[in-house]
């Protein structure tokens, strides 16, 4: 069994209009844009990162906004819901805030004894806020939401699957342990993780497969401390039969990828070097940062990319 993984690192999704995406995560949800860069494979498309003040592993939601992309189709083989931790007693505040902002799909319920508020992102993304008592992680309050209400980071992610069996076994191999099962959902947790410790498996055998598009999660990334730990995980996965990519330098972390039995793309990402490698912490996410191989395109990209506040 792998013991190097410490919870979630980031979740990366697809979006439509960049400015709408940026406003939703910064103005509506109060997260900090910690990096404004471009897609490594399509440099004419932004890669936007939102999180806590420094972009701590377990807090970062990232997006590829393609202006003319079709909306995704929900189904199995994807991350269905991304859930964020908020302080105990704050869902009333969030209900009012999201209602005033015109956010769609608001629905209050509970799961595993925790109060939740579900809502949709601008492209139909599935989100929820979960009240957690005494989450020690520090929130970002620079966008006008007080410490008493602000998002702490990820709480969990819910994976939609036709059959949970093989994916559950994979997650157990990755260090997750089953902690509960209710209403057809299996909850697994990383003991002593980084706060973004939970994965829920939703079995939906009669639902068609998801289709990637705006509002869809592209991949979900798990956190390891450094490159040494990452290589240990890569070897263990490959020894088990998984086809894992070589290590890829993503500027702010190193990444490896592999496809799960349920069809979801998993990434293992390092906590190093972090988002302050090329920007002072006080100014994270302000300037357009380009991967070295795309630096020569700066003038063209600055004309092409939609301006962001």
TrEMBL record:
The keyword Nucleus does not apply. InterPro entries: Extradiol_RC_dioxygenase, Glyas_Bleomycin-R_OHBP_Dase, Glyas_Fos-R_dOase_dom, VOC_core. Keywords: Dioxygenase, Oxidoreductase. The keyword Transmembrane does not apply. GO terms for molecular function: dioxygenase activity. Pfam families: Glyoxalase (PF00903). Residues 7-132, 153-271 form the VOC domain. This is Ring-cleaving dioxygenase.
């Amino acid at each position: 069994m792998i013991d190097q993984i410490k919870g979630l690192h980031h979740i990366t999704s697809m979006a439509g209009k960049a400015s709408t995406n940026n406003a939703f995560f910064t103005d509506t949800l109060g997260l900090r844009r910690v990096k404004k860069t471009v897609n490594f494979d399509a440099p004419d498309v932004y890669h936007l990162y939102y999180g806590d003040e420094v972009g701590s592993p377990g807090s970062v939601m990232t997006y590829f906004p393609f202006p003319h992309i079709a909306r995704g189709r929900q189904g199995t083989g994807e991350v269905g819901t991304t859930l964020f931790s908020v302080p105990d007693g704050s869902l009333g505040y969030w209900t009012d805030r999201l209602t005033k902002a015109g956010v769609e799909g608001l629905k209050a319920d509970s799961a595993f004894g925790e109060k939740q508020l579900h809502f949709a992102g601008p492209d139909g993304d599935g989100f929820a806020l979960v009240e957690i008592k005494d989450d020690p992680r520090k929130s970002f309050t620079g966008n006008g939401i007080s410490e008493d209400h602000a998002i702490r980071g990820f709480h969990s992610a819910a994976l939609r699957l036709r059959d949970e069996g093989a994916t559950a076994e994979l997650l157990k191999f990755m260090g997750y342990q089953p902690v509960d099962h209710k209403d057809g959902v299996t909850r697994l947790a990383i003991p002593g993780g980084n706060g973004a410790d939970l994965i829920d498996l939703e079995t939906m055998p009669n639902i068609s497969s998801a289709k990637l598009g705006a509002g869809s999660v592209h991949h979900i990334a798990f956190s390891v401390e450094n490159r040494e730990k990452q290589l240990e995980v890569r070897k263990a996965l490959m020894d088990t039969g998984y086809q894992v990519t070589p290590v890829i330098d993503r500027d702010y972390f190193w990444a490896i990828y592999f496809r799960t039995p349920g069809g979801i793309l998993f990434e293992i990402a390092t906590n190093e070097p972090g988002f302050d490698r090329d920007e002072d912490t006080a100014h994270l996410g302000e300037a357009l940062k380009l991967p070295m191989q795309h630096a020569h395109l700066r003038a063209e990209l600055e004309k092409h990319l939609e301006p962001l506040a």
